[in-house]
């Protein structure tokens, strides 16, 4: 079982507090004097206050964060489908232990510290006093860098008694240095203490099994009426607070917690022996798998294991030395992805950075569950991208770029249908040059006739990647970028009689005139003051990425001043009203959405077989950049390829269909129709272990359905009971349902039982 830190976040303070309360049932909570609350704070925020005092800095224990393994690994963290937090493991960083706090630690903005409550209060007071006395100063750069990316985190820390791994469900990847000493309570290395704590748990965790047993008795009692399981829910919420309250909860998450709790309550092993996992070392898979299974049963022996647990093989291959690592892990259920069988049409606007053409929309077809690299490839083909060009994608909102899309492996689900995307065609040979982003604003005079004009942002930003040393370069480049929008024949400065010239010639002539005007030729009247703004001129200012700040004007001969981010420079261009009349800015201002559906248009429902879902789950794929594997041969972390295979199957097979997807920007439910077998689910061709098990065939006996969306919905169940009769369980209503009605796009969790071969 696990020990938990209870959550008590501290709003408006750059930390989160964690409260650890291990106690027996009936034991009084800790008093305020014995409060073991600790706070997660930026390392440098804490250390700066410590360095200023004469007190000795306590030696910290470093932990490195890595993604938590799936169920069946050492940690058991069940993520709520309505929560986008990520599960991590914290392991002691032995190589950093010798450095202590005086080594190269705390230099990263991802370094955090766990400190006692008293230390947190003292540190907070020190910063408050320092800030009050330094209002006129610039501030604390190191502190501001940390605090700008810190907000109250929602954390859950837990550890299994028999492991030396601390699991944390957290919204950031970070390194934690423990200066509180509280995490040592979770790493129980003393065998006597392990036994003592295990005995305490045995006395309490049996309550889940007892409460569930009482519920089953009431449900199966003769003449029973509909039952509201309030008592069971209260007992469940006592051990798992995430199931308290009346909000919608995930049925699969509830099932996972219940099965795990029942297993621990009914575990026949009272004193779990220490078992060290061994590498396969090129031994036969059968030998290694049996060894892993014996080790698992030595610590986990219950009816839940007997009936509900299977085993899969995990194979990792190093891309460099081709080292193969094979492990075998237990599973309680299979969580299968829903591969998309359909495509998605997406419309983007392509803009050239040389000012040769106006923006052009392109519509491409990509896999619905594809990645950004799929979109980039399709768009490159559609716009005939040259070999010496590259595309830079960005999302536009309110006439500014709110994000660049630069990670090829990002899911296209991050892009919504009503987003507005733009793709800039840039030269490859200028990838090392800074990126200049030009944003536009136009002069507007109020109806009241006030002399001071107001400014309004318009159009999409124009982008160029080029080294520009002074204002003349910036003026010239921008003039070329907006040249395609000039209205032919409207510029009197080109001395064009309009007799035989083509539209292209007129645009080039007016472009030359615009360049002449911007470079300060005698076209302007001698009577004008040298610094006065002509009614037909642009003005350029360095600004921030939102275009809300206007710095000093960039003059023709002025050098470009350095900015905090020299790789990207944002320039705000002010248009006079007269200048705007010389350009057709409609193509610059009209940007199509990614997908615009008709009012009555309805997309066809997707359909995929359960076998395709299983194949997607078992396919080989590279590990993500945040889930690198340490190769024992190369002695470094690498992005290994991973392949899962089913090895042994349980009597009761639970299949979870992953309908809920969430990311930083989007939460979504997949309404894909999954065609699953009801009478003959045959998994023989998916079992890596040959022989040794009589049957790999299953029959369906229950379905958990979810209707609705991410934020709310309704659960029902279809259950097979007696003969060929299925029943629909909908709250307190139970009614027969025909078998041909049980397959719907609401199916969420499938329950199968093994049947012997005839």
TrEMBL record:
SUPFAM superfamilies found in the cross-reference section: Cysteine proteinases
Keyword Hydrolase: yes
Annotated USP domain residues: 155-755
Assigned keywords, A-Z: Hydrolase, Protease, Thiol protease, Ubl conjugation pathway
Cross-referenced PANTHER family: UBIQUITIN CARBOXYL-TERMINAL HYDROLASE
UniProt keyword Ubl conjugation, yes or no: no
Catalytic activity: Thiol-dependent hydrolysis of ester, thioester, amide, peptide and isopeptide bonds formed by the C-terminal Gly of ubiquitin (a 76-residue protein attached to proteins as an intracellular targeting signal)
Similarity comment text for this entry: Belongs to the peptidase C19 family.
A biological process from GO: protein deubiquitination
Region (Disordered): 1-35, 516-537
Protein name: ubiquitinyl hydrolase 1
Top enzyme category: hydrolase
EC number: 3.4.19.12
Native source species: Sesamum radiatum
PROSITE patterns: USP_2, USP_3
GO molecular function, one term: cysteine-type deubiquitinase activity
Pfam families (UniProt xref): UCH (PF00443)
